[in-house]
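Exercise 3.2. Students should predict the tertiary structure of the chain below and write it as structure tokens, then compare their answer with the key that follows.

Predict this chain's 3D structure.
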Amino acid sequence: QVQLVESGGGLVQPGGSLRLSCAASGTIFSISTMGWYRQAPGKQRELLAVIMSDSSTNLADSVKDRFTISRDNAKNTVYLEMTSLKSEDTAVYYCNAKILLRFSVREYDYWGQGTQVTVSS
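Answer key:
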């Protein structure tokens, strides 16, 4: 079984910054695509950013000027750098990864438990 653990969330003032991280553990052979999502109360889960195995990235229009996604393959970790945070960014942030386990024949999607980000003065 694979475990994804997010960290770095918390309370921040408008205009502030946070760096989220998500580390994968388990009998991992490789990780291809990794991504970040968020979900606010009463809203659908929103895809924010993805990073591919070649480190190419795509970000949602709502955050592309303020957020950056990156990964450290040696640590099986994906990061989300968030700057110029707004109250509208308040949500639970989730990481996702498509992972091939050792001795498996195909990749599967895995999700972290989520970390709360609250932007408020």
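Discussion points: Residues 8 and 20 are 5 Å apart (CA to CA). The radius of gyration is 14 Å.
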